[in-house]
Design goal:
Belongs to the GATS family. It is found in: Cytoplasm, Cytosol. 24% of the residues lie in helices and 24% in strands. α2 crosses α3, α2 runs antiparallel to α6 and α6 packs across α7. The protein has 2 domains: 102 residues, Alpha-Beta Plaits, CATH 3.30.70; 145 residues, 2-Layer Sandwich (VC0802-like). By secondary structure, the chain is of the alpha+beta class. The longest helix is centred in the C-terminal third of the chain and has 14 residues.
Length: 289
């Protein structure tokens, strides 16, 4: 069977404590919602040594139903697996929406404990039918990206380079007011460390700065192109943004990595399929007008 595992349910207080420990700053923006993590696993186990197919595998079963019930999600694809973040206040709707197709568990002290609709029925309100979601503009820069991982014990060997790339090497942020509609290139670097597994997304030029023998990728060594969603910061209250990309790609059986950020959403697709992806998304835009 396929199970939905609420990872970090029991770890939420620690996450909040880490945020509380950060010094107050006028330069730090924090969303007002608390988010919980959903992880979709098959037969109760994930496959940490295999690359996932991203939003394609969960578009119809998770992303689309949540969008239909007006649940806003943040998506984080990694080298190993995929995570969906939902707001804590939406938990009753999430459980009731997915319980028909999934066995749902929460993690308590490292153990998976079954969750039923009765556990969260208090305060559950049947959601109103959502209005037609806004179809946001998409842009596809020419930059080519790599999806990589590294063994945790080799991380110290590239730590200095990681710090340089993360904090010192990039230019000023992209300015929506001065940028053209079609971007020639985009600066994007993503590093995640989740339960000991490391996932990195970087452009092909940045990859050349790292020791090639320490960066691990798929056997094909494929490169990826990006589709960025949103002409301005998206916010967190709107639903259906991930579904805008996930549903047409799933229908065409095109794998994709999807990374939501504070301001924009980003989908990575195999380089050889970018023309088909752009065509599919343009058709969806036209049909939604």
């Amino acid at each position: 069977c396929v199970r939905l595992w609420r990872a970090l349910w029991s770890h939420l207080p620690q996450c909040l404590l880490s945020l509380a420990e950060l010094p107050p700053s006028e330069f730090m923006q924090v969303a007002d919602s608390t988010w919980l993590v959903l992880s979709v696993v098959s037969n109760g186990r994930e496959a940490p040594g295999c690359q996932a197919t991203g939003v394609t595998k969960i578009a119809r079963s998770v992303i689309a139903p949540l969008a239909e019930h007006h649940v806003s999600v943040l998506m984080l694809s990694t080298y190993q697996t995929d995570f969906i973040l939902v707001r804590e206040r939406d938990l009753p709707v999430v459980i009731h929406t997915l319980a028909g197709e999934f066995d749902i568990y929460r993690e308590e002290s490292g153990e998976c404990v079954p969750v039923t609709c009765d556990d969260v029925s208090n305060g559950f309100l049947k959601p109103k039918p959502p209005a037609s979601p806004t179809l946001h503009p998409v842009q596809s820069p020419q930059t080519r990206f790599c999806v990589l991982t590294v063994a945790p014990d080799t991380l110290p060997a590239i730590a200095t380079m990681l710090i340089d790339v993360l904090f010192y090497s990039h230019g000023p942020p992209w300015d929506a007011a001065t940028s053209s509609q079609d971007l020639d290139s985009i600066t994007f670097f993503s590093f995640s460390l989740i339960e000991g597994y490391i996932s990195i997304v970087m452009d092909a030029e940045t990859q050349k700065r790292f020791p090639s023998d320490l960066l691990l990728t798929s056997s094909t060594g494929e490169l990826w192109r990006m589709v960025r969603i949103g002409g301005q910061p998206l916010g967190f209250d709107e639903c259906g943004i991930v579904a805008q990309i996930a549903e047409p790609l799933a229908a065409a059986d095109i794998s994709a990595y999807y990374i939501s950020t504070f301001n924009f959403d980003h989908a990575l697709v195999p380089e050889e399929g970018i023309a088909e992806v752009i065509q599919l998304l343009q058709q969806r835009q036209e049909s939604g007008r």
